[in-house]
Amino acid sequence: MVTDIQAQMDVLPGLDPRAPLLHVDDLHVEFRTRDGVAKAVNGAEFYLNPGETLALLGESGCGKSVTAQAVMGILDTPPAHITGGRVLYRGVDLLRLTEEDRRKVRANRIAMIFQDALSALNPVYSVGFQMAELFRKHRGMSRKDAKQRSIELLDQVRIPAARERINDYPHQFSGGMRQRVMIAMALALDPEVLIADEPTTALDVTVQAQIMGLLAELQRQRNMGLILITHDMGVVADVADRISIMYAGKVVEEAPVHEIYGRPAHPYTKALLESIPRLDLKGRQLNVIPGLPPALTDIPAGCPFRPRCGYARPVCGQQEPPAYRIAQHRIARCHFIREVLGV
Ligand SMILES: Nc1ncnc2c1ncn2[C@@H]1O[C@H](COP(=O)(O)OP(=O)(O)O)[C@@H](O)[C@H]1O
Ligand code: SF4
Ligand SMILES: [Mg+2]
């Protein structure tokens, strides 16, 4: 599907068609709670080009969902506070838009799907009604056209017998089918960016693979930018173009997917790769990364990965490593990249 740049210009003035589709620039988000200030996102930085799939990867609690919610403009503030950085959509900083413009972007340009489709869909309305409402509200379609378009979309996400199922309620669908419904709703207004936050985590392995395949296919057909958020390095190898690895609220390594699997540059990436369950090693003990991520209320000086890192030396406790550029599309934040790469 070809995206009409002129139509976007009408949605939001100032968009630059040559700018990256999305650029998260030095984003900081903190939660001020009774237990202190948790620095959930601590200078996160990544970009997304049109038609590209970026995997945002890291252990639970590293700030992936908070980053995604900041991009979408759906963070609860308070307790969350965005204390710095920019979220540029084609060069326009979304953090500075009025709530009305923000809503337009959210509805028409950037969409998101979540792990839990049941809580994202409204339980008291049929799936067809919820979808048709989108077309009626945002596209001014008639009831009949909206219904027809909803059936087409459910067909596209391969819900069998879409025409018959359109009047069913969310709880009448299986977990996998519900996730397909949520994908259909997210795609209803033809977004340029889709953020999928752990979209298959709640599903069993076979269904996971089907949903991942469907997302990859839809991304290609529509030439969308897709941000795939996951804690599971095993699920993204076949679908992502690039990977950004997050640790303690920062991107610690960024690389094209075919380069990172064979040749990680950051000790954390290396440890994540070693923790992927392998079919050929069935029964053998899984290599779990020792230790825990730092408490976000008390991130230590120097490199946040230091307490868990086999490469650490005294300098790591004193100086936080900057982002080193290794190659055109590769960055890593580590003082000892050469050792990790073995060069
Ligand atoms: N509602 C909240 N109140 C306080 N702290 C929160 C809240 N939501 C998230 N956090 C903090 O932000 C951190 C990052 O959360 P999150 O982005 O959900 O992690 P991920 O998606 O990577 O698992 C959490 O470890 C927690 O410290
Ligand atoms: S900077 Fe030091 S502690 Fe941090 S990842 Fe590199 S070697 Fe490990
Ligand atoms: Mg999350």
UniProtKB/TrEMBL annotation:
Stretches assigned to the ABC transporter domain: 22-273
Name of the protein described by the UniProt record: ABC transporter ATP-binding protein
Recorded GO MF terms: ATP binding
NCBIfam families to which the protein is assigned, alphabetical: oligo_HPY
Matches recorded under InterPro entries: AAA+_ATPase, ABC_Ni/Peptide_Import, ABC_transporter-like_ATP-bd, ABC_transporter-like_CS, Oligopep_ABC_C, P-loop_NTPase
Topological relation to the membrane, as annotated: Peripheral membrane protein
Phylogenetic lineage: Bacteria, Bacillati, Actinomycetota, Actinomycetes, Micromonosporales
Family to which this protein belongs: Belongs to the ABC transporter superfamily.
Key words of the record: ATP-binding, Cell membrane, Membrane, Nucleotide-binding, Transport
Compartments, record wording: Cell membrane
